[in-house]
Amino acid sequence: MTDERIRRIKMPKWGLSMTSGTITDWLVAEGDEITDGTELAEIDTDKIAGTLESPEEGVLRGVVVAAGESAPVGGTIAIVAPAEVPDAEVEAAVAEAKEQLASGAVEEAAGPVTGEVEVGGRNLSYATMGDGPDVVVLVHGFGGDKNSWLFVQEPLAEGRTVHALDLPGHGSSTKDVGDGGLDELAGAVIGFLDALGVERAHLVGHSLGGAVVTAAAARTPDRVRSLTLVAPAGYGTEANADYLRGFVEASTRRELKPHLRALFADESQVTRQLVDDLLKFKRIDGVQDCLRALLGTLLDGDKQAIDAASLLAGVAVPTAVVWGAQDQVLPVADPSAFGEGVQIRVVEGAGHMVHMENPAAIREAVESLLG
């Protein structure tokens, strides 16, 4: 019988389309003590690179998949166990895991479960992970979709229910944003909660999504337990208008890729797959009209048009803010825009897509508000 203290670290499923990942670097070595949340390895997916955080505590006793090697989703990549577990048992577990990988007999990890609800005559698509009493709703930014949370949703879903929502006009949701106004988008989030029967939720919003969840909280404060704002729009006047307009109008790889580099501190994150996926999205009927409508909501000339700060002033829920220090799209706002008592963390080495470049910072911010 296998010692129950032997725990298996598996290749995660970070998105609906992810089937495998490549270990590009191990950040810990065999014999190292690890805890829940320890950064274990850098993993390359078909979308983007990310850092795997440990879901286990103990000692890293065996590496099954070496740096440079790939494994299918759900495959064991390392063994964790207390130091007192005999080496022979750990070696047997490593050998078993390697045999499973070689034979292809790997049970795929459960990924997000997708669904659709109708809100205001539109179908809204969403992906859900976990099943717990606390409900977290993740809302992406301008031009994004539910998959932008791929590195955040899984770790947050431990003991919780976490929904990643496609706003109107984005992802797999209906390509119709109405007038494109902030109130329209906030109404979609509130309608989503209604459709799922969620009385109160922790709302997390990135960029435009940050302004949207702020507006939702201002409209229905009794429905919101906390706000986590990730590089949110509407908390200052400065914006990279050239990026926003360039993203909307770009129709080829050559035109789009230079603009996407502004999203990350590490420009190598702009992979061919990322560019191709965004071009595919932008070519869907109705998308350009939606993006242009939303651009009118975001910008007044070359300045931000949204004033989310005044909305937040009337919201009395625990709030945290996370911003990438190297954000080239929306500069880090003055802390006074958020009022007193708001946690603000500026993350070095991260740009506008801080939830992709440092997902641990987002997880920590959300969990700090769960109480």
UniProtKB/TrEMBL annotation:
GO molecular function: transferase activity
InterPro entries recorded: AB_hydrolase_1, AB_hydrolase_fold, Biotin_lipoyl, Carboxylesterase_BioH, Single_hybrid_motif
Top-rank taxon, per record: Bacteria
Listed Pfam families: Abhydrolase_1 (PF00561), Biotin_lipoyl (PF00364)
UniProt entry keywords in alphabetical sequence: Transferase
Domain Lipoyl-binding: 6-81
Key word Transferase present: yes
Name of the protein in question: Acetoin dehydrogenase dihydrolipoyllysine-residue acetyltransferase subunit
